[in-house]
Amino acid sequence: MPADAGPDTGGAISRDEVAHLARLARLAVTDAELDVFAGQLDVILGAVARVGEVAAEDIPPTSHAVPLQNVFRPDVRRPGLSQEQALAGAPAAEEGRFRVPRILGEEQ
Amino acid sequence: MTTTAPALVDYDEVVARYEPTLGLEVHVELSTSTKMFCGCPTDFGAEPNTQVCPTCLGLPGSLPVVNRAAVEAAIRIGLALNCSIAPWGRFARKNYFYPDMPKNFQTSQYDEPIAVDGWMDVQLEDGEVVRVGIERAHMEEDTGKSLHVGGADGRIHGAEYSLLDYNRAGVPLIEIVTKMIPGTGARAPEVARAYVTQLRDLIKSLGVSDVRMDQGSMRCDVNLSLSPAGSGVLGTRTETKNVNSLRSVERAVRHEMQRQAGVLDAGGAIVQETRHFEEQSGTTRPGRRKETSEDYRYFPEPDLVPIAPSAEWVEELRGTLPELPWEHRKRIQEAWGLSDEELRDLVNAGALELIEATVAAGAPAGEARSWWVAYLAQQANARGVELAGLPITPAQVARVIALVASGDLNNKLARQVVDGVLAGEGEPDEVVEKRGLKVVSDDSALVAAVDEALAAQPDVVEKIKAGKVQAAGAIVGAVMKATKGQADAKRVRELILERCS
Amino acid sequence: MSELIRLTAHELASKIHSGEVSAVEAVQAHLDRIAEVDGEVHAFLHVATEAALANAALVDEAVRAGTAPASPLAGVPLALKDVFTTVDMPTTCGSKILEGWRPPYDATLTARLRAAGITILGKTNMDEFAMGSSTEHSAYGPTRNPWDLSRIPGGSGGGSAAALAAFEAPLAIGTDTGGSIRQPAAVTGTVGVKPTYGGVSRYGLVACASSLDQGGPCARTVLDAALLHEVVAGHDPLDSTSIDAPVPAVVEAARIGAQGDLSGVRVGVVRELGGEGYQPGVRASFDAALRRLEKLGAEVVEVSCPHFEYGLAAYYLILPSEVSSNLARFDAMRYGLRVDKGASAEEVMAATREAGFGPEAKRRIILGTYALSSGYYDAYYGQAQKVRTLISRDFAAAFEQADVLVSPTAPTTAFPIGEKVDDPLAMYLNDLATIPTNLAGVAGMSVPSGLAEEDGLPVGLQIMAPALGEAVMYRVGAAFEAARDADEGGPLIARVPEVAK
Questions:
Q1: Phi, psi of C181 (to 5 degrees)
Q2: Is the pLDDT of residue A10 over 60?
Q3: Measured between CB atoms, which of A26, A87, A103 is closest to B162?
Q4: Any alpha helices (H) in C129-209, and if so which ranges?
């Protein structure tokens, strides 16, 4: 990628985009926050877009800093939590289950 | 968008004018002892939230560790489906919010599946074989279960609130995705059903899942699109979820074909969407539209390290593959000298495994088969259960057959012994004992009975002595009647002839 | 003020194990100190008075019974960053969303501290979910730097570092994702170590960025840090990224180092970490440190790590991406805060997350959601992962030329509270020199190098070593510390002013 591959500083992200991202991230941000975040994120994105300056086409990405592989556990049971422990921190519980407000979306 | 759905098109018309393209995604819950990423049990039907730990509840700070047995099962499924096993791959996080998913991301081998590019030859009723390409098989984790309270029939719509049980969360799943299956024409519903059936049999034979569609340990999504016949243009597909029986697979494909043809005939366009199969009506309905298009923001799971199965490990696992169910059937067919039709009847009746088990318990194949397809099939029918649901084991049937072969029982008595076993009276030998069903082979008792019968019919004795041997039948009948059928008729006849000589 | 609180952990442990001082006295002295100064410093979010005294009593019992101590640090009090789960104390991660949460399990690190007989005094303040460089992003108010209460103690582990500098605890635990152990150590004149990634279990460490997070020891001397390092490090089967290898012999290395001979050790000065953007007093202290290292016999060479200048940019893409996924689980369904605003689960989730997360957490969640979006993934997250590879290669090449690398730990000394809190990018620049080690997974530590001339505040020397190369790092750190203390007539920490009340 050429040096200018990343989005330009300034105008990298719009207020509407930030609003959309907040919805995706389940954050009911206020209008005032949107104003502040949009400006701040624009500056931050301008700075981090510098990664685009690095010529790295043939470079493999690193997802794990230390190269381990094939770490498994045997198929053996371990003691877990009791129902009481599991539900102890629940905002609401009923019949041994977590009680949550009604769910609008379809199951995935 | 249209609000009224166009009418369904007659099936023959659909296939005359459109070409269906199928795709099937099957989720199989593995029957490992523990979950995909933690040591919690996977047992079905436990009290809610009793098979959970910090990891499968997604508690802050918890971490996953991959279950080795699940990886082995995935590799074995991949090998059985003629897939290549990826030499290196990572889990990814599929990010979306849903209350049944404790971390709000699903850990899945989304784009680096462990098994890719395989196939399975699917045999239809009439013997035609369709090769179904396998795109991939990958590992992931199941979600928890929601109980919707306050709505009609526990359905999500109109519910006031929901109750969540995470016992199922984290149970290992293998998702098996076919390549697009074109060119099946009118047989598309049949191909879909046959594929799922055969896949179920295959996975069962591997012993890695109990593949119970009724319990959700095997679930199927059906992708379908239509293109105008001869156009070669691929149509827009729909994905139908909640298809939870073999029959539903067939019905869902058929219905989607008829529905999509209706939309296309009316000049409409197929919406790429998720639909839900309605078991009762046999129709599909659209899922709820999402306000924003879903972007799962996949990225490699940093908490798990890559899986790199060595060639040695893969070969070792290949060595553990059992004979494939259809190969096995072919062998049985040859060994027992069955016609294709006879074999299919046995398979359809669910008798094949029972007969094999009976043979394995020592019975000759012919007799084992005859018992299961005749008398026992009648009994199952009368009780309205599957053959396998009868309260008699192959070993018990084999014992009855052995008792007949040794002359301890005749066929009539044997049926009574089977009745006794089915009635819960115990093992065959106990039934014989309790009901007093043994063939009378003690000559002294028989001789007495024969002499009594001969004395009662002197005229017949005269005939026999005069050489009319066939007259002995009358005496045999009398002896059998006197002994309530427990005498060995052949022996009785011999005794009669002896006494009259 | 009890003299017990000014002892090093090593000295205190010797007195406790010899019976000269009881563990209860030692704990009580620290509890008294906390009561005396923590109103000003605010290092602690929770003080576990009873549990601490109970543990100390057990240690005393063992001493009286003549049992060997559970570890060389048995009975020594410790301040635990509030990001590790503890069954007997709340775990909040400095966030409102976890206010009052009582985990049902102990982190592996917590369990190891307990098994070693170390007394956990309480949980320390931090930037929310370890995101920040000043501890101002704690939902429970900022921690103040004991050197100057108007200034920040660094972050995110400002609570742990301040507790050490204020003599509220001789030992502490921190976590380091991009400098959160080392930068607070630098600005408070204490010692902090980020072990090799995978060296200390993350099980029970509430994740900030999973591929970068690493727990580690904080202390007032290098030997104390080494003693604590050996307690908490080592393989954990519950953490897939935990390295299954022996823990480097860091205590022995620290003892050897303290003898003051570094001949044969090559020290690499990273050209890209220094110069412009670094406060003059920081640069002066660093230059003096290099001279001191040379005097100890080390060979000082210059190395170049050309991709380090992109480290900050790569870090602020990778970290928010992982954060956006890791913090998704805080959704009001299973634990933590629930804001009952709205009728649906979706609305309650969004309202709770809005109310429960502070501005920095929200910024990073949004930034990460953006960086992982399908249209931007390659340009941002994907490219950042490649830069990560290049930074690892830079380290590998540099470690060919040098046994350890050095730089100033942070570009500036402690800045005034409030100065950068509304300028995220300025705040991020604090981590310029510490971030590369996290990206590459190698080890790093900060030891006090002196006070900056212009403001009289502590400066830290960063020493970096290859993966599992902690021994040489501790050796150099201990040698430097001993030489500095000898030259200056005592440890730097002795010059911290008494907390003004």
A1: -100, -45
A2: no
A3: A103
A4: 158-165, 182-188
Mean pLDDT of C186-207: 98
C-beta of residue C404 within 8 angstroms of C-beta of residue C472 = yes
Q: Quick: pLDDT tens for C241-280.
A: 999 999 999 999 999 999 999 999 999 999 999 878 899 9
Q: Which residue of C has its CA nearest to A58?
A: C386
Instruction: With a cut of 90, say whether residue B408 has pLDDT above it.
Output: no
Joined together, the tokens standing for residue C481 give 């510390």
Interchain pair B156, A68: CB under 8 A:
no
Angle at Cα C260 formed by Cα C257 and Cα C261, nearest 5°? 85
CA-wise closest residue to C22 among C48, C47, C58: C58
Closest chain B C-alpha to C86 CA, distance in angstroms: 11
Q: Is B362 on the interface with C (CB under 8 A)?
A: no
Q: Please, which residues bridge with residue B307 across strands?
A: B89
**C-alpha distances out from residue C312 to C259, C362, C381, C383, Å:** 37, 19, 13, 13
List residues of C with catalytic annotation: 81, 156, 180
**Which pairing describes strands C266-270 and C404-408: parallel, antiparallel, or unpaired?**
parallel
B37-88 pLDDT, tens digit each: 999 999 988 999 999 999 999 999 999 999 999 999 999 999 999 999 999 9
Reading the block at residue C57, the tokens are 């009593």
| Residue C405 one-letter amino acid | L
Whole-number Å distance between alpha carbons of B471 and B460: 7
Write out chain B residues lying below 8 Å of A64, CB-based. 300, 302, 305-306
Cβ within 8 Å, pair A81-B161? no
Cβ atoms of C472 and C465 within 8 Å: the answer is yes
- Rounded to whole angstroms, the Cα distance separating C282 from C279 reads 5
What pLDDT is stored for residue A1 in this prediction?
32
**Strand pairing category for B172-178 and B161-165:** unpaired
Place of tokens 């953006």: C370
**How far apart are the C-alpha atoms of B184 and B186, rounded to whole Å?**
6
Q: Which two tokens stand for residue C282?
A: 């920081």
Rg from Cα positions in chain A = 23
How distant is the Cα of C163 from the closest Cα of chain A, in angstroms? 29
pLDDT of residue A6: 41
Which tokens in the block code for residue B70? Answer: 């699940």
Structure tokens at B477: 């009948």
pLDDT at position B443 is 74
Question: Does B102 contact C329 at a Cβ distance shorter than 8 Å?
Answer: yes
What is the widest separation between alpha-carbon atoms in chain B? 103
Choose among C95, C338, B43: nearest CA to A99. Answer: C338
C285 Rama class: left (phi>0) / alpha (psi -120 to 50) / beta: alpha
Q: Is the minimum CB–CB distance between A90 and chain B shorter than 8 Å?
A: no
Give residue-wise pLDDT tens across range B183-234: 999 999 999 999 999 999 999 999 999 999 988 899 999 999 999 998 888 8
For residue B123, give the nearest of B49, B29, B187, B212 by alpha carbon: B187
Gap between the Cα atoms of C96 and C278, Å rounded? 35
The amino acid at residue A64 is H
Distances (CA, A) of B115 to A71, A78, A82, B76, B180: 19, 29, 37, 9, 17
Q: For tokens 């990018």, what's the residue?
A: C425
DSSP run (H or E) holding C461: strand C458-465
Least reliable range by pLDDT among B5-19, B151-165, C210-224, C394-408: B151-165
- Mean model confidence pLDDT for chain B: 91
* φ, ψ of residue B108 in degrees (nearest 5): -150, 150
Neighbours of A, requiring at least 3 CB pairs below 8 Å, are B, C
A107 touches chain B (CB under 8 A): yes
Q: Does B102 touch chain C (CB under 8 A)?
A: yes
Q: How many CA atoms lie within 13 A of B278 on its CB side?
A: 10
The answer to whether the beta carbons of residues C435 and C177 sit under 8 Å apart is no
| CB-CB neighbours of B464 under 10 Å | 21
